[in-house]
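Quick note —
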Amino acid sequence: MLSKRLIACFDIAKGMVTKARQFQDNIAIEPAASMAIRMYDAGIDEIVFYDITASSDKRKIDIDAVRAVAAVVFVPFTVGGGIRHLDDMYDVLKAGAEKISIDSMAVRNPSIIRDGAAAFGNQCIVVSTQVKKTGVRKEIPSGYEVAIDGARVMTGLDAVQWAVKAADLGAGEIVVNSIDNDGMHSGYDIDITRRIADSVHVPVIASGGAGNPEHVADVFTKTGASAAIISSLLYSPRLQKNFSVHEVKTYLQSRSIHVRPPAESFNL
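Predicted structure written out below.
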């Protein structure tokens, strides 16, 4: 049985991990490298790093911050933000990332998914989708629309249809990032996560909304998600109580959800 994965997400601005609410009002928390060490030592399964202003600022990713994180962690490390060309992908991989996340540029130029998969392998390409519930209409049959540029621009693309297209073009994983639930600590958007997981043939990562371990269990038991991003739950100053990776994994095990053992379980 494949283990469900827990992923710490770092929204990076000027080398600092930040935390937002519905993609706005980011609070700076800690330098990326020191946060990465803490999460790695705590037993996190993977880390994803988004340079959150690179696309909107029309600049390249902060490669120094990528190198700083890659130097101190030894778990799968995904990097996104400001990826526009294959050369950008190569630079990120050379800096220590194992996977590349593309979002806004994938919408603007879908061929970058196919080209990246051909150059580096499907397993290397993660397509992150910012989704917002905007209501069912002819062009948005799911009722969920794709946004880009940090949720600043709505695209007119249906979230489920876009996820299917991205997977068909060669994405190895799809992140379903709920704009409505982001930073709200009320749980993931189960509906759209389930719909996308049921529609694509690649692993789906749930993102946006976890405020306690029960929310993580819900997304694993009620959808086909293979992994969950748990950033707020771990370190958001807006959350009354933060949880450790060990606490989350122990709770999931109590719900008969198969996860990699908590870090302390390896101590003999």
